[in-house]
Amino acid sequence: MTTTTLTAPATLQTLIASELAPRVAAIDLEAYYPEPFLRAVGALGGFASVVAPEFGGSGKGLGEAIKTMAEIGESCLSTAFMHWCQTACARYIQLSDNAAAKRTWLPRLANGSLLGGTGLSNTCKSNCDIERYLLTARRVDGGYSVNGALPWVSNLGPDHIFVTGCPVEGDGRLVFFITRCDQAGFKLIDAAHFTALEGTRTLACQFREVFIADSEVLAPPEESARFLARIQPGMFLAQLGMGIGLIRDCARLIENVGKTHAHINRYETDQADELRAALAAAEQETFRLAARLDAKPTDDELPALLTEVLRIRLAGGELTLRAANAAMLHQGARGYLRTAAAQRRLREAYFVAIVTPSLKHLRRELARREGKLDH
After folding, report:
1. Does residue 316 share a domain with residue 258?
2. Partner of 367 at 20 to 30 A CA spacing, among 112, 164, 184, 264?
3. Shortest CA distance to 47 belongs to which of 58, 36, 35, 32?
4. Dihedral, CA of residue 182, residue 188, residue 193 and residue 198, to nearest 10
5. Alpha-carbon span 178 to 298, nearest angstrom
């Protein structure tokens, strides 16, 4: 696969202004995949914070990743989502006990020369009894043979990788592993088109006797429960980077239209200052929890920490919808144009509400943890 590379500019802000902002409409409406931008972000160190220095990263932590994601998300949530996919993939490998996989994959994920996705939506929902597992693994000599199909995995391409997990036949427990998109028996299928995030390379993944070598297993069955508990809090918390960036831009959209329409928009329920105040509180909690995760909590601390993450992830998702709805109403007819930012932001906001864990998933899981689940 031939790719275009960019000469990395001095700052992320410069890169966003020159290479991302002018292409947002193409990403949204023409399914343009901003691969050159993503690779340039990697060259700037924009993926490196979740990777330890010994594996080519900066080790600055999850909070730094969320800040970068939010900055990208102020212009384009689709691209912020791909930043999440890339850093989530790297973080899963970083948090595994597979030293060989870390040496093989992390340096290239950290610098953007390798792009990756995360195929754990079905794994997470099935683990909570929301849906059935769509992949199965069978133990074979030297690894596992995997069959099945995942409907939607993002930030993929022929030379990409992603992480997923599924139950092992005859065992019942899960195995987590790296999948190379160019390996035998694996196929990418462009099977769906979306109302937003069309430029995210979200594809169906077909497994037909795909061999996963032990060297690419991040957690075998005996370690899988602990591994899932380790990766989930950061996986869910980091998604707030998308919402933070979108809410900031929605507040700007409200202010911009207020220059000419304040006399009527003053009667709208949500104003820019109110949204910014709510966002400040959400950001404070998000970065507090990110710091706790960066401090390497013990296995005993993780369940309570995940509950806190679920609460702020739910609040952040709800605030994202509120901000996008407000921006659309403040903008009025001008926001209803096909290329208008307000209507794009509203469509993007719904993704924050439905990406795993969706708001209904979050509410259900919190109800379960509080002993209020209605079966």
Report:
1. yes
2. 164
3. 58
4. -10
5. 25
- The kind and range of the H/E element at 124 are helix 121-127
| 31-62 pLDDT, tens digit each | 999 999 999 999 999 999 999 999 999 999 99
Closest CA to 247 of 320, 164, 306, 197: 320
- Give the tokens for residue 357: 């864990």
User: Among 204, 224, 244, which residue terminates a domain?
Assistant: 224
How far is Cα 322 from Cα 314, in angstroms, rounded to an integer? Answer: 12
* DSSP state letters, 244-291: HHHHHHHHHHHHHHHHHHHHHHTTSS--HHHHHHHHHHHHHHHHHHHH
Q: Under a CB-based contact definition with an 8 Å cutoff, are residues 297 and 229 in contact?
A: no
**What is each CA distance from 64 to 71, 124, 128, 178, in whole angstroms?**
11, 25, 29, 25
Q: Does pTM top 0.90 for this prediction?
A: yes
Whether residue 339 is found in the same domain as residue 217? no
Weakest-pLDDT range from 91-105, 275-289, 361-375: 361-375
Distinct helix (H) and strand (E) counts, the chain: 13, 8
Q: Assign residue 44 the CATH number of its domain.
A: 1.10.540.10
CB 233 within 8 A of CB 306: yes
Domain containing residue 186: CATH number:
2.40.110.10
| Residue 374 falls inside a structural domain | no
Domain that holds residue 219: 119-224
Distances 335 to 72, 203, 291, 347 between C-alpha atoms, Å:
21, 30, 37, 12
Residue where one domain finishes, among candidates 115, 132, 150: 115
Residue 46 within any structural domain of the chain: yes
Q: In this structure, is residue 6 part of a structural domain?
A: no
Q: Which residues contact 304 (CB under 8 A, 6 or more apart)?
A: none
Q: Which of 125, 364, 81 is nearest to 240 (CA)?
A: 81
